[in-house]
Specification:
single chain, mainly alpha, 434 Repressor (Amino-terminal Domain)
Length: 110
């Protein structure tokens, strides 16, 4: 797959114009357009950035085991901090009544 094909897929998935995509890569529209038309080839650093974004938008991004474990630990810690939020709401009449009032108001807003 060539650079243009990857850029087209990135553009379609993100719903960006070529100008906005050029801004995202931190290059001028002229440079980006030269990549698009095949008049120029991005430098290795930009090729890496294009490849990474391509993998991300297509769902093929590979996450290392260490990063994955770190994210899992962070999620476990956050979930343990908020484990008993439902019990807190149900056991506190003031919070429960306010919560029900907000739900009722927001469900009848339309």
């Amino acid at each position: 797959m060539n650079t243009r094909q990857k850029l087209e897929i990135i553009q379609k998935r993100l719903g960006l114009t070529q100008t906005k995509l050029a801004e995202r890569f931190g290059v001028s529209f002229v440079a980006f357009n030269n990549w698009w038309t095949g008049k120029a080839v991005p430098r290795p650093k930009m090729l890496t950035a294009i490849e990474e974004l391509y993998l991300e938008v297509t769902g093929q991004k590979v996450i290392s085991g260490e990063q994955l474990d770190a994210k899992k630990r962070a999620l476990r810690q956050k979930s343990s901090e908020h484990k008993n939020i439902i019990a807190e709401i149900l056991n506190n009449p003031d919070i429960r009544d306010q919560f029900i009032l907000q739900l009722t108001y927001n469900s009848n807003i339309l």
